[in-house]
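RECORD TYPE: inverse folding
INPUT: structure tokens
STRUCTURE:
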């Protein structure tokens, strides 16, 4: 299976004054912890319950590490870490800095990178293929469907707006206060419990 992409019109014009279309990934659905546990159980000697217990304990350990201010590296996938925002709550003097300034926390994901010769690449980039939504629309007989009239309740056509952005804008980092988190996406708040 491949990642489905559609065109997303940039909200800001380029230097020539043109708003250009950029590829945007389309979410095809959600895979839950139980789904993953079931798939792993089918491929191992462990029962579904055993696998779910291991996965549940792994999630608890990830939460514990994040709450302790550690980065969590998931080999072959990427790493997770906590960042904070202090929207409009800055201070002029460093001695006045306080945790009370923090307005929100976020778990940021950064994709794993690998070295191939002189280049560093995203670990999964060689294994991901893409399919244009227009081609899929024709295959499904859904001609005439555009970004503006895609059924909002259809999980096959829900855009993953929280983790993608216009090409070149770095996507949604989930953190405007921390420039070091530039290419991660906000993974949501559920991980910290």
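DESIGNED SEQUENCE:
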């Amino acid at each position: 299976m491949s990642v489905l992409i559609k065109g997303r019109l940039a909200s800001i014009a380029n230097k020539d004054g043109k708003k250009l279309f950029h590829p945007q990934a389309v979410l095809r659905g959600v895979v839950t912890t139980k789904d993953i546990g079931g798939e792993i159980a089918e491929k191992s000697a462990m029962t579904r319950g055993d696998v779910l217990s291991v996965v549940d304990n792994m999630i608890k350990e990830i939460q514990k590490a994040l709450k302790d201010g550690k980065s969590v590296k998931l080999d072959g996938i990427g790493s997770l870490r906590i960042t904070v925002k202090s929207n409009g709550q800055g201070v002029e003097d460093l001695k006045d800095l306080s945790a009370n300034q923090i307005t929100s926390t976020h778990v940021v994901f950064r994709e794993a990178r690998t070295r191939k010769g002189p280049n560093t690449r995203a670990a999964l980039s060689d294994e991901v293929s893409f399919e244009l939504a227009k081609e899929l629309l024709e295959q499904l007989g859904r001609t005439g469907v555009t970004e503006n009239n895609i059924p909002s309740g259809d999980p096959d056509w829900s855009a993953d707006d929280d983790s993608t952005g216009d090409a070149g804008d770095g996507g949604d980092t989930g953190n405007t206060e921390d420039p070091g988190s530039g290419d991660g996406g906000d993974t949501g708040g559920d991980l910290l419990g």
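NOTES: The radius of gyration is 20 Å.
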